[in-house]
Amino acid sequence: MSQIKYRVFVAEAVSPKGLELLRESGLIEVIEAKDVPKDKIPDVLAQIDGLIVRSATQVNAEYLSKTPNLKVVGRAGVGVDNVDVDAASERGILVMNTPGGNTVSTAEHALSLLFALARHIPQAHASMKAGKWDRKSFQGTEICGKRLGIIGMGRIGTEVAKRAVAMGMRVSVYDPFLSLNRAKALEVELKETVDMLVPDCDFLTLHTPMTPETKGILNSKTLGLCRKGVRIVNCARGGLIDEAAMIEGLKSGQIGSVALDVYEEEPPAANWIVRDLPNVVLTPHLGASTAEAQENVGIEVAEQINDYLLNGVVKNSVNLPNMDAKTMEVVQPYLMLGQKLGLMLAQVGPKRADRLTVRYHGTITDYTTASITRAILEGYLRLAGGGEVNRINVTKYAQNLGLEFSETKMSEPSDYSELIEIELSAGAEKTTVAATFFGVTPRIVRFNGSVIESATEGVLFFMENKDRPGIVGWIGTLMGRYQVNIANMALSRSEQGGRALTILQLDSVPSDEALAEVKSEADIYSVRLAKL
Asked: Where residue 1 falls among pLDDT bands split at 50, 70, 90?
């Protein structure tokens, strides 16, 4: 029987199929909250590596403080409002969501609300339940041929657009990241601004995330530009519609009706004024509440946590660049190389560095390089932060230290089919290193401008010296005298008799006495040592 390596706590009910998937390898123990007495939960949290939640569990800084070994939080759903992503990132905890599992369910719910507005279905139903037969008050409108405006063309907005076009609606959309070619393929009209979108629309539906830019995206100004009697659906996030402006529009008739599934405060207060307005349809955040959606997100979050814990694959992360299994297979050697180069620069580069710059050349530029840059930073900051630094929190750690970092993908040809070049600066002082792969073997190929070939493991001894006869024999003899074996030696020089670089790969670290003797030699300009 396999030995348990990881423990995953399931704080809220998710698909049993997903939990079974986690258990399949025999390496993950699944602990469900329903099986743990409340007074024992703190003990469980202290041991877990993974956490699965839905929307009810508040994963804030206090909650996270009880999970010293936690590596990943999986949110079974799209929103991560109940997870303090910044606090998780500071702790080096990966946060994932499941945006794909409930896409169709939410799109269908938005269209259901659109139909409800068009035909006054909830109001007619309530009238019938009250014993009335009132056909005149609930005359509706066809949606075929009407103009639908969609704000936000992510997964859900796209699914709404496809279905609306199929039903004969004319669809206009606003999304600053949607390409013109994609809009044409979807048979929708792309508008440059919200102000340009809303005037011609009979219906509006929102499918954008909540950001400082999108909060109140429908406000007194934009609602004033709308066609009188516009019908609005919001299944995305509470707060996308300015509430005061919405209420005023509903009362004045500028807005014909509104259907809401999401709210700034959930649940809304019992005396919330919107409840009493006759031209409003309200549902209690049901967008993802279908059996299929709950099954899908449960399986999806389980797959993601399983892949991350067992294989290091990152998917649907909100605080780390995504990397599927195929990309991980290609990029993994670069991650390991980047980490070593960063660790090396921390030991041989300038102290109190203020900037780290990474340049990528060749075939590696075809892949996402952000994770490699993070690996370089992780290696560089390991000596400063120890085990607290990892690929998730490393950017925040660097920012806290005042270390600026950047990456560039170079388009001009290089001497190598692929090359990673790193420059570490402290004011005017700089150290640069470049590395590549010879087959599957990583090699340093440049150091401070000198062309050289050196290994990337073990104890590396960097010596800048005057190029003169006997220097190689001298350093070999000295190392032998101090019982330090040389595994490999690499040499480079700018010109005969000029400045030279020697890199020794050693089996052990030279003593302080040996290093002091090397530095005392007049023809030695600098000596640096890195343990990899």
From this structure: very low
